[in-house]
Amino acid sequence: MQYRAEVTIELKPGMLDPEGTTIRRALEHLGYHTNELRTSKRYIIDLEEESAEMAKQKVDEMCQKLIANPIIHNYTIEMREA
Amino acid sequence: MTIAIIEFGGSNCNLDVLHVLEDVVGADAERVWYKETDLDRFEGAVIPGGFSYGDYLRSGAIASRTPIMNSVKKMADEGKPVMGICNGFQILTESGLLDGALTTNEYPKFRCEWTSLRVETTDSPFTSAFKEGEIIRIPIAHMDGNFYADEPTLSAMEDEKLVAFRYVDSEGHVTDEANPNGSQENIAGILNHKRNVMGLMPHPERASESVLGSDDGVRMFKSMVEYISNR
């Protein structure tokens, strides 16, 4: 089966997000007030696996081995059939 | 005695390090492309700065997962000295050879300027030619040099004296103004627990000849070469 994983990587809560802070400040200049703005990165990965569970396990491995840095990141994986 | 200069696609301080090691210090050095897997013939390694793999994903992340890094780990396990400069520091933290992580500068801007550093320990193969507490001048050039580690890691580093250099003002005080990137506790360079691996964001190779404005950096390479000769 073909699966599509959408991986979202974000900085752990409490960690400084300089990119988000800068965007928030720019919005403020445009007259938009926000309480918080955090950035995240999203990776879309298509892969072939026997089951959704196996596909998710593979993507989880990818996150642990390369895509995320466990010292600074949290991540979530959403799976669906492609 | 030959020192390996590890090169990835996007390394760009490799020739500067080669020049300093060979022409200024008088050591033997050899550039090694990341596809090599056997580093047994080398007595030490330097991972130079640059933008390996375009700094895609995270600075240093992709380079840290290449097979040559397993050979660098083996060198480190054998007690050989390994120094990572700038992107090299990012590669060493990403590969787990050093604690912590390097994230985007607190004010997210590429900063290229001279910094004052305080030598925090002389007990390492890279800092033995300095005096403890000495203030030296070495330039930085980075966007992702904000050192982060959690509290238990930081206090363990403090206990073991693993911080090699801190950003300070011209009088040697640790201040927020002297911190160019928001690093915790103004950390500019650290050692591993065995003290034979060092990563630092400032570029010692760019301060290794007085014509460049400072030759403080050359003592790191001299320390390393002397350590290797005495091993």
From TrEMBL, chain A:
<comment type="subunit">
    <text>Part of the FGAM synthase complex composed of 1 PurL, 1 PurQ and 2 PurS subunits.</text>
</comment>
<keyword id="KW-0963">Cytoplasm</keyword>
<dbReference type="GO" id="GO:0004642">
    <property type="term" value="F:phosphoribosylformylglycinamidine synthase activity"/>
</dbReference>
<keyword id="KW-0658">Purine biosynthesis</keyword>
<keyword id="KW-0547">Nucleotide-binding</keyword>
<dbReference type="Pfam" id="PF02700">
    <property type="entry name" value="PurS"/>
</dbReference>
<keyword id="KW-0436">Ligase</keyword>
<protein>
    <recommendedName>
        <fullName>Phosphoribosylformylglycinamidine synthase subunit PurS</fullName>
        <ecNumber>6.3.5.3</ecNumber>
    </recommendedName>
</protein>
<keyword id="KW-0067">ATP-binding</keyword>
<dbReference type="InterPro" id="IPR003850">
    <property type="entry name" value="PurS"/>
</dbReference>
<comment type="function">
    <text>Part of the phosphoribosylformylglycinamidine synthase complex involved in the purines biosynthetic pathway. Catalyzes the ATP-dependent conversion of formylglycinamide ribonucleotide (FGAR) and glutamine to yield formylglycinamidine ribonucleotide (FGAM) and glutamate. The FGAM synthase complex is composed of three subunits. PurQ produces an ammonia molecule by converting glutamine to glutamate. PurL transfers the ammonia molecule to FGAR to form FGAM in an ATP-dependent manner.</text>
</comment>
<comment type="pathway">
    <text>Purine metabolism; IMP biosynthesis via de novo pathway; 5-amino-1-(5-phospho-D-ribosyl)imidazole from N(2)-formyl-N(1)-(5-phospho-D-ribosyl)glycinamide: step 1/2.</text>
</comment>
<dbReference type="InterPro" id="IPR036604">
    <property type="entry name" value="PurS-like_sf"/>
</dbReference>
<comment type="similarity">
    <text>Belongs to the PurS family.</text>
</comment>
UniProtKB/TrEMBL annotation, chain B:
<protein>
    <recommendedName>
        <fullName>Phosphoribosylformylglycinamidine synthase subunit PurQ</fullName>
        <ecNumber>6.3.5.3</ecNumber>
        <ecNumber>3.5.1.2</ecNumber>
    </recommendedName>
</protein>
<feature type="active site">
    <location>
        <position position="205"/>
    </location>
</feature>
<dbReference type="InterPro" id="IPR029062">
    <property type="entry name" value="Class_I_gatase-like"/>
</dbReference>
<comment type="subunit">
    <text>Part of the FGAM synthase complex composed of 1 PurL, 1 PurQ and 2 PurS subunits.</text>
</comment>
<feature type="active site" description="Nucleophile">
    <location>
        <position position="86"/>
    </location>
</feature>
<keyword id="KW-0378">Hydrolase</keyword>
<keyword id="KW-0067">ATP-binding</keyword>
<dbReference type="GO" id="GO:0004642">
    <property type="term" value="F:phosphoribosylformylglycinamidine synthase activity"/>
</dbReference>
<dbReference type="Pfam" id="PF13507">
    <property type="entry name" value="GATase_5"/>
</dbReference>
<keyword id="KW-0547">Nucleotide-binding</keyword>
<keyword id="KW-0658">Purine biosynthesis</keyword>
<keyword id="KW-0315">Glutamine amidotransferase</keyword>
<keyword id="KW-0436">Ligase</keyword>
<comment type="function">
    <text>Part of the phosphoribosylformylglycinamidine synthase complex involved in the purines biosynthetic pathway. Catalyzes the ATP-dependent conversion of formylglycinamide ribonucleotide (FGAR) and glutamine to yield formylglycinamidine ribonucleotide (FGAM) and glutamate. The FGAM synthase complex is composed of three subunits. PurQ produces an ammonia molecule by converting glutamine to glutamate. PurL transfers the ammonia molecule to FGAR to form FGAM in an ATP-dependent manner.</text>
</comment>
<dbReference type="GO" id="GO:0004359">
    <property type="term" value="F:glutaminase activity"/>
</dbReference>
<comment type="pathway">
    <text>Purine metabolism; IMP biosynthesis via de novo pathway; 5-amino-1-(5-phospho-D-ribosyl)imidazole from N(2)-formyl-N(1)-(5-phospho-D-ribosyl)glycinamide: step 1/2.</text>
</comment>
<keyword id="KW-0963">Cytoplasm</keyword>
<feature type="active site">
    <location>
        <position position="203"/>
    </location>
</feature>
<dbReference type="InterPro" id="IPR010075">
    <property type="entry name" value="PRibForGlyAmidine_synth_PurQ"/>
</dbReference>
